[in-house]
Amino acid sequence: MGAETLIRSHKQFRKKYGKKYSSLFQKLVEEGQSPKTLFIACSDSRVVPNLITYTKPGDLFIARNIGNFIPPYNPDSEASATPAVIEYALSVLNVENIIVCGHTDCGACKSLYQEIPEDNPEMTNIRKWLRFGESAKEQALALVGPADKKSLYTATEKFNVIEQLKNLLTYPAVKRKVAEGEIFVQGWYYHLDNGELEYFDPIEHRFLPVDAALRKAEETGLMRDEEETLIAAQQ
Ligand SMILES: [Zn+2]
Q1: How much distance in Å is there from the Cα of 73 to the middle of ligand 1?
Q2: Each residue's pLDDT expressed in tens, for the chain with a length of 235 residues
Q3: In this structure, what CATH number is given to the domain that contains residue 130?
Q4: Is residue 37 part of a domain?
Q5: Ligand 1 centroid to 162 CA: how many Å?
Q6: Residue at 13 is within a domain
Q7: Alpha carbon distance 122, 205 (integer Å)
Q8: pTM score, two decimals?
């Protein structure tokens, strides 16, 4: 899809949604944004956060990168986009939820099993960035071995969500707010082919269909209304 096509699409957007959303757009400018959720997802073109959560402009503060990786907190590291998004979401926007969303058929997770030559200047940043998926790769190899590629990739994608949740908890603001019950953090696994969604249950230590999360929420009353809305939108 070229730039010209995108401009034509934009005109369609104005025509179709301009009126429908004009009051919302105005309100979001006048009052500023106050999204309740930080959504961390892969850059994959098939993962579209607002679409899959059935949300509107202003609802999600979004960080997307290759592999939905979260570099562990490091005050001495070079400036990096995803850590800055996390800090802004917590310290300025005061989000109440953080979703880390992995997905099936993730090219980043597959790339962990391919060698990228160190002397290739056109892939330098990809090679460096993929190190944040190494731990997931090691765990997947240990669990399912290298023979069955489909199972290996699925395991890698799921371990990756768990590992990134751990990395997220290395950020001082995240750690403090989770401990004080001010934010709720959850890992998701989205199926590209049919739109189904699983979430990571830290007590059972496995991924479960989101229906189970809703049932549990009703039983325990632990989840907030906003989170229920987000997940309900997947049904
Ligand atoms: Zn991906």
Answers
A1: 22
A2: 899 999 999 999 999 988 889 999 999 999 999 999 999 999 999 999 999 999 999 999 999 999 999 999 999 998 899 999 999 999 999 999 999 999 999 999 999 999 999 999 999 999 999 999 999 999 999 999 999 999 999 999 999 999 999 999 999 999 999 999 999 999 999 999 999 999 999 999 999 999 877 887 787 765 555 444 444 444 4
A3: 3.40.1050.10
A4: no
A5: 15
A6: no
A7: 39
A8: 0.90
